[in-house]
Design goal:
mainly alpha; Growth Hormone, Chain: A; 18 helices
C-alpha cells in the first residue's frame, strides 16, 4: 500500500491520475465541516436549550477559525512545503471533532468548532497554493473549476449523511462522521507529491511576513479579487447559516430531506464550473469574473424579492437561491486564480489572506442572519442580496477592465 502511494506520488501532477481527486478531497473540509451538521442545528438548539442565534454561533465559530487559521497555514506552507502543514491540520481537525461530540453546552461546542475550523482550513488553503505552484493563471482557474467538479459531491453528500445519522442516532455522531472524513483525507494526502521546491521556500521571520502582507494589502487588484470573492462567500454563508431554520422550521422540511434541497445548489454550481472550465482559457479569468459578479448581483436581487414577498413559497425560494449559488462558480475559481497570479513567490500567503477574508466575512454574515432572525426568510435574503451587490461594486471599483483574451483552449 505504502509503496503504491509512493509510486503515485512520484508522478508529475499532469500524469498523476489521483492528483485532482486527492486535491478535491482536501478542499472538501469546508463543506464537510459545515454541511454535514446543518440538518442537526435545530436539534442541537433543542438539546442544549438555546435559541437559533446561539446555535449559529457554532457555525460562525467554525467560519472564523477556518478564516484565521489560513494565515497560519499559508505562512507555514511557504516555509516548510505543502504536505507537512496539511497533515498537522488534519490531525488537529480530528481531535476537535471528538471534543465537539463530547460538548455539553453551546460555549464549549462553539469553542471546539473554532479549533476544528483552524485545522480544517490547512487543506483548502495549501491546495490552492499547490495548484499555483504547478499551473499559470488561466490554467489554474481551469484547474480550480475542474476541482470543484471533483469536490462537488461533498456538499451534496454531507447534509444527506447528517440527516441519515439523525434518524438512527443523535447529533453528536455527526462529528464522529466528520472525524472519519479526516482519516480519508489523510490517506488522500499520502498520494500527493510535494509541489514547493526547497529553494523556493520563504522565511517565517515576523518582518518578512509583515512585508508580504503589506505587499498584498496595498495591491489594488488583489484587494478587488480577494474582497469581491469574500463578499460572495458572505452570501453563501448567509444561506448556509439561515437555510436549516428557513427550510426545516419555517417550511416544515424533514431534516433527512434537507440535504436534497441543499444539494440542488451544488448541482447548479457544478454545472457552471463545467462551463467555466471550458471557456475560461478562451475569455480569460478576469473577464469571466466580471461577468459572474454582475450575474450574481442580479440573482441576489431576485433572492431578496422572493424571500420578502413569499412568491412561489418554498420552491420559489429554492429556485432563486439556485441562481445565486450557481454564479459562485464563475467567481470563486477565477477570483482566487487572479488574486495569486502576481505573487508566485508567496502563493501560500496570498491564498491564505484571500481565504481568511472569505471565511471571516462569511462568519460575520452568518452571525448577522442569526441576529436579524424573525421567523421569516427575509433576513437571509437581505444578507445574500447585500453581499452580491457589494461584490459587484468592489470588482468595478478596484479591478481594471480586462483586456481581450488571448489564450487558446
Amino acid at each position: 500500500m505504502l509503496a503504491r502511494l509512493a509510486a503515485v506520488r512520484a508522478l508529475s501532477p499532469a500524469n498523476n491520475p489521483f492528483f485532482m481527486a486527492a486535491l478535491g478531497v482536501l478542499t472538501s473540509f469546508g463543506p464537510m465541516g459545515t454541511d454535514m451538521y446543518l440538518p442537526g442545528m435545530p436539534t442541537i438548539g433543542a438539546d442544549l436549550r438555546v435559541p437559533q442565534d446561539q446555535v449559529q454561533w457554532t457555525l460562525s465559530a467554525f467560519f472564523l477559525g477556518f478564516g484565521i487559521g489560513q494565515l497560519i497555514w499559508g505562512a507555514l506552507g511557504d516555509r516548510f512545503g505543502r504536505r507537512g502543514p496539511i497533515a498537522v491540520g488534519i490531525l488537529l481537525y480530528g481531535v476537535a471533532c471528538v471534543d465537539c461530540s463530547l460538548s455539553n453546552d453551546i460555549a464549549h461546542l462553539a469553542g471546539w468548532r473554532f479549533v476544528q475550523g483552524v485545522g480544517a482550513c490547512a487543506g483548502p488553503v495549501l491546495v490552492r497554493a499547490m495548484i499555483r505552484d504547478v499551473f499559470d493563471r488561466d490554467r489554474a482557474a481551469r484547474t480550480l473549476s475542474l476541482m470543484m467538479l471533483v469536490m462537488g459531491a461533498a456538499p451534496i453528500i454531507a447534509p444527506l449523511i447528517g440527516g441519515q445519522i439523525l434518524i438512527w442516532a443523535n447529533w453528536r455522531w455527526i462529528f464522529w462522521g466528520q472525524a472519519i472524513f479526516g482519516a480519508i483525507a489523510l490517506l488522500a494526502l499520502c498520494s500527493l507529491p510535494e509541489t514547493l521546491a526547497r529553494d523556493r521556500r520563504s522565511s517565517l521571520r515576523p518582518m518578512t511576513l509583515a512585508l508580504s502582507y503589506r505587499q498584498l494589502l496595498t495591491n489594488r487588484a488583489y484587494l478587488g479579487f480577494a474582497f469581491g470573492s469574500a463578499c460572495i462567500y458572505a452570501g453563501m454563508f448567509a444561506f448556509i447559516s439561515g437555510s436549516p431554520f428557513v427550510y426545516i422550521d419555517l417550511f416544515g422540511v424533514n431534516p433527512e430531506y434537507f440535504g436534497f434541497l441543499f444539494g440542488i445548489n451544488i448541482v447548479g454550481m457544478m454545472a457552471m464550473s463545467t462551463v467555466n472550465s471550458r471557456i475560461v482559457l478562451r475569455y480569460g479569468a478576469e473577464r469571466m469574473l466580471r461577468t459572474g459578479t454582475a450575474l450574481a448581483a442580479a440573482a441576489g436581487l431576485v433572492v431578496l424579492a422572493v424571500a420578502a414577498s413569499g412568491v412561489g413559497g418554498l420552491w420559489g425560494l429554492v429556485a432563486a437561491i439556485l441562481l445565486f449559488m450557481a454564479m459562485m462558480s464563475f467567481i470563486n475559481a477565477n477570483a482566487m486564480a487572479c488574486a495569486m497570479q502576481s505573487f508566485p513567490h508567496m502563493a501560500g500567503t496570498a491564498s491564505a489572506l484571500a481565504g481568511m477574508l472569505q471565511f471571516c466575512v462569511g462568519g460575520v454574515s452568518g452571525w448577522v442572519v442569526g441576529l436579524l432572525a424573525n421567523g421569516t426568510a427575509t433576513p437571509m435574503g437581505a444578507v445574500i442580496c447585500a453581499a452580491a451587490l457589494l461584490s459587484l461594486l468592489l470588482n468595478r471599483w478596484l479591478v481594471r477592465r480586462p483586456t481581450p483574451s488571448h489564450t487558446a483552449p
